[in-house]
């Protein structure tokens, strides 16, 4: 099997679990039979975190004949992606200063992943790259990816590569800390902002899924909160779209399950806006695309 035909192993690190899967580079698809999830709490000791991540990687490629072409890891910031060193102080606090690349390599000694050196990318960046490589933005040159959940994530892709600087790209490619409405963008565009807006209107504290259900059942207050959420998102994105000039904006994250409730204001951006087609597989595919790009 040629290196180009070998599958790539992708890992997506989350606060409560890690997902690993093989990616077929020819089909640009996740091999569903390899998909493995392991629950690892973010406040676990460093050794339990890295050992868990190493173990789920091995489980995902347990039935693979031959070596994988490489391992790509989608990792939340703050993280020194080139060096593989963690700089987290809240989630994954025990990893602060730990070289995660070396920890994984040590854990893989004597296994089929021995001598494999993982490459790391920001999880929101790899979401955008995955959508550009295999999803809603495939074939587009300039892509803006946005993830909506506990925070506001963003990734910028130009000609198949993540960019964190350059024309129209905010510092480090991050939107969450953009000044907006006297605070930060994330204070108006996140799960917390959505839930708080509903409680301020006099409603009970609900999670986004229940809030969406209420809106679909005709709750006027819930519908207004979702509409206002979309308006805030459009307002945050407007100057970015004007400066970066993307061919498409792709929106992912948990809140896209309510896409029809908040997407209408995004039409005012003047560029196509798509909900993610890959959902939680986007970062895995982006991690694979990163490996393939770095390996030439």
List keywords for this structure.
single chain, 296 residues, alpha/beta, Nucleotidyltransferase, domain 5, five-stranded mixed beta sheet, 8 helices
Elements, N to C (H/E): EEEEHEEEHEHEEEEEHHHEHEH
Q: Sheet with the most strands?
A: 6 strands, mixed
Number of folding domains? 2
- Tell me the β content: 15-25%
CATH fold description of the largest domain: Nucleotidyltransferase, domain 5
Q: Considering the protein shown, what is the CATH homologous superfamily of the largest domain?
A: ATPase, nucleotide binding domain
Tell me the total number of β-strands.
Answer: 15
Oligomeric description of these chains: single chain
- Mean pLDDT rating: 94
Corresponding CATH architecture of the largest domain: 2-Layer Sandwich
> Helix/strand-derived class?
alpha/beta
Please describe what this structure looks like.
The protein is an alpha/beta fold. It folds into 2 domains: 8-124 and 282-294, Nucleotidyltransferase, domain 5 (2-Layer Sandwich), CATH 3.30.420; 139-276, ATPase, nucleotide binding domain (Nucleotidyltransferase, domain 5), CATH 3.30.420. Helix content is 32%, strand content 21%. It has 8 helices and 15 strands. Strands 1, 2, 3, 4, 5 and 8 form a 6-stranded mixed beta sheet that branches. Strands 11-10-9-14-15 form a 5-stranded mixed beta sheet, with helices on one face. The protein has a two-stranded antiparallel ribbon with strand order 6-7. Strand 12 and strand 13 form a beta hairpin. Helix 1 (46-60) packs across helix 2 and helix 5 crosses helix 6 (220-244). The model has no long low-confidence stretch (mean pLDDT 94). InterPro entries: ATPase_NBD (IPR043129), ROK (IPR000600).
């Amino acid at each position: 099997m040629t290196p180009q035909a070998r599958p790539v192993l992708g890992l997506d690190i989350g606060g409560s679990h890690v997902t690993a899967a093989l990616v077929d580079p020819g089909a640009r698809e996740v091999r569903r039979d390899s998909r493995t999830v392991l629950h690892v709490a973010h406040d676990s000791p460093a050794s339990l975190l890295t050992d868990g991540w190493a173990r789920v990687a091995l489980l995902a490629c347990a039935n693979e004949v031959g070596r994988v072409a490489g391992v790509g890891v989608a990792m939340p910031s703050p993280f020194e992606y080139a060096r593989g060193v963690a700089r987290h102080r809240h989630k994954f606090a025990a990893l602060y200063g730990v070289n995660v690349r070396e920890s994984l390599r040590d854990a893989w000694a004597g296994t089929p992943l021995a001598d494999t050196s993982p490459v790391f990318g920001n999880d929101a960046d790899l979401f955008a790259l995955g959508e550009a490589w295999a999803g809603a933005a495939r074939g587009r040159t300039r892509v803006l990816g946005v993830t909506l959940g506990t925070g506001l994530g963003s990734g910028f892709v130009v000609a198949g590569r993540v960019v964190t600087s350059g024309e129209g790209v905010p510092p480090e490619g991050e939107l969450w800390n953009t000044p907006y409405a006297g605070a930060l963008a994330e204070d108006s565009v996140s799960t917390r902002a959505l839930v708080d807006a509903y409680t301020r209107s006099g409603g009970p504290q609900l999670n986004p899924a229940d809030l969406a259900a209420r809106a679909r059942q005709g709750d006027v207050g819930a519908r207004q909160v979702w509409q206002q959420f979309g308006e805030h998102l459009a307002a945050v994105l407007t100057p970015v779209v004007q400066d970066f000039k993307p061919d498409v904006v792709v929106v992912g994250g948990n809140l896209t399950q309510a896409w029809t409730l908040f997407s209408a204001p995004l039409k005012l951006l003047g560029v196509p806006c798509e909900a993610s087609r890959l959902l939680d597989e986007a970062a895995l595919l982006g991690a694979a695309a990163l490996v393939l790009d770095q390996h030439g």
